[in-house]
Amino acid sequence: MRGAWIGCAALAAALHVLFFVVESVLFPGTPAIQERFEATTPEKVEAMRVLFLNQGFYNLFLAIGIFAGIGLAVRGTSERAQVAGRTIVTYSCLVMVGAGIVLLLTTGKAAGAVVQAAPPGLALLFGWLHARAEPAQD
Description:
Layout: H1 2-26, H2 31-36, H3 42-75, H4 79-107, H5 110-133
Helix pairs in contact: 1-3, 1-5, 3-4, 4-5
């Protein structure tokens, strides 16, 4: 279960790095991406650019949290560091799942919500199963 937990969490983080690239790096200068997000006028592009810049960095910071958390959970030199790493990954995944639910409820776009929420949701499930399988430590 640990490998599935790490794999799903890393996939969620990688997808959020991709979201960052699309929203914060490519959107401002890529007409095809602008059209995909229905930014059809220069005014709309400018308004969305500011929002996407913020949103993209938000996604990047969540991804960094997951990668750092995985590093601590796997390579931490103490039980405290490993618990901190698992906690960071869990929190970041919960935020991603929550954002996916909000996306679904506000736009009705199930495909986008699944892409955003399924990998971190699976990471949460596998993390929970892994934690249940570990012997209790006193």
